[in-house]
């Protein structure tokens, strides 16, 4: 089968690798334009582009696929390119651009999306982070036949994956990327016989894009909720707290049962400071000061100068 692959980050690159390794004829790749990255903010190709070029696959990087939008010329060029590639099926994974109807209709077999959740739970941009934040017991991968809606298409394959109690977005990303890469290869081996199952109407949730402003820790929230959110936001955007106007990042905590006014320093343990929450408390076990590296709180908490019985700041330093 002639395939076009559309994707951008490492999650998608692993699926592209698997398709190429399995011997599928990937005739072209769509990926996001190169973006500034790193300390020098130099333009950097996406992981998918890097893998495609290494495999000798043609790459297109339109800024938009809307024929009537701001980058209509880009979209027109992309349409001509797709037509010349003449794919039978497009495989899509974390591409980052909305596929308009003309793209969905172009391949005779349509577009197959690798989505990192058990649809219809966690439709949208950040299913990996939101399932951890919500305390879900499991997630997984859904291979979905795309339609014009937001992750509303019929399901081709669903496979669950249990979440570990210490799961972070980074660890779950890697497990789901490997799972998605394996499943898409297996699905194409069985493609003519794979059923189409409409998504259930019940249980729909939306995984909103992560906003870095969500990093600010609200100590009024329960300790268990704060702990989950920190794992969900590792590696981005982490957790942010402040003491007397000096901000610092919180990466890991341990839930305890201490009680006190939310945000108050309850104890200064050898492992790290214990902070009261809306319900229970947390011991900060991994921190990062501005300009420094993340590491054990025991090595960093002293330099913060936290005072027993006093509260952390209730607002971010920039507020």
From TrEMBL:
Source organism superkingdom: Bacteria
Domain Formyl transferase N-terminal: 1-188
Gene Ontology MF: a single term: methionyl-tRNA formyltransferase activity
Catalytic activity: L-methionyl-tRNA(fMet) + (6R)-10-formyltetrahydrofolate = N-formyl-L-methionyl-tRNA(fMet) + (6S)-5,6,7,8-tetrahydrofolate + H(+)
Keywords (A to Z) from UniProt: Protein biosynthesis, Transferase
Location of the Formyl transferase C-terminal domain: 209-295
InterPro entries from the UniProt entry: Fmt, Formyl_trans_C, Formyl_trans_C_sf, Formyl_transf_N, Formyl_transf_N_sf, Formyl_transferase-like_C_sf, Met-tRNA-FMT_C, Met-tRNA-FMT_N
Any one of the GO CC terms: cytosol
Signal peptide: none
Record Pfam families: Formyl_trans_C (PF02911), Formyl_trans_N (PF00551)
Gene3D superfamilies for this protein: Formyl transferase, C-terminal domain (3.10.25.10), Formyl transferase, N-terminal domain (3.40.50.170)
Enzyme superclass (EC): transferase
Binding site for (6S)-5,6,7,8-tetrahydrofolate: 117-120
Documented EC number(s): 2.1.2.9
Family matches, as HAMAP family: Formyl_trans
Functional description taken from the UniProt entry: Attaches a formyl group to the free amino group of methionyl-tRNA(fMet). The formyl group appears to play a dual role in the initiator identity of N-formylmethionyl-tRNA by promoting its recognition by IF2 and preventing the misappropriation of this tRNA by the elongation apparatus.
Similarity comment: Belongs to the Fmt family.
Name listed for the protein in its UniProt record: Methionyl-tRNA formyltransferase
Organism whose genome encodes this protein: Inhella gelatinilytica
Organism classification: Bacteria, Pseudomonadati, Pseudomonadota, Betaproteobacteria, Burkholderiales
């Amino acid at each position: 089968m002639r395939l076009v692959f559309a994707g951008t980050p490492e999650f998608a690159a692993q699926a592209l690798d698997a398709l190429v390794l399995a011997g599928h004829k990937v005739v072209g790749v769509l990926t996001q334009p190169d973006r500034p990255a790193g300390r020098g903010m130099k333009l950097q190709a996406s992981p998918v582009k890097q893998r495609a070029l290494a495999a000798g696959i043609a790459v297109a990087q339109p800024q938009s696929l809307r024929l009537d939008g701001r980058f209509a010329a880009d979209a027109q060029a992309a349409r001509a390119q797709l037509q010349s590639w003449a794919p039978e099926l497009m495989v899509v994974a974390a591409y980052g651009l909305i596929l308009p109807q003309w793209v969905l209709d172009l391949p005779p077999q349509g577009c197959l999306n690798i989505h990192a959740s058990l649809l219809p739970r966690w439709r949208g941009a950040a299913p990996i982070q939101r399932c951890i934040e919500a305390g879900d017991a499991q997630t997984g991968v859904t291979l979905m036949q795309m339609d014009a809606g937001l992750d509303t298409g019929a399901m081709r394959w669903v496979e669950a994956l249990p979440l570990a109690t210490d799961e972070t977005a980074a660890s779950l990303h890697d497990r789901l990327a490997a799972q998605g890469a394996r499943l898409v290869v297996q699905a194409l081996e069985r493609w003519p016989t794979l059923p189409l199952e409409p998504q259930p109407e019940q249980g729909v949730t939306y995984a909103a894009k992560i906003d870095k402003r969500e990093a600010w820790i609200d100590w009024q929230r329960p300790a268990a909720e704060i702990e989950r959110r920190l794992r969900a936001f590792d590696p981005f955007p982490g957790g942010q707290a402040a003491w007397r106007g000096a901000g610092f990042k919180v990466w890991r905590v341990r839930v305890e049962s201490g009680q006190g006014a939310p945000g108050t320093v309850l104890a200064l343990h050898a492992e790290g400071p214990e902070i009261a929450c809306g319900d229970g408390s947390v011991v900060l076990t991994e921190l990062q000061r501005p300009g420094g590296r993340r590491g054990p709180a025991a090595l960093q908490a002293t330099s913060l100068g936290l005072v027993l019985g006093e509260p952390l700041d209730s607002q971010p330093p920039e507020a």
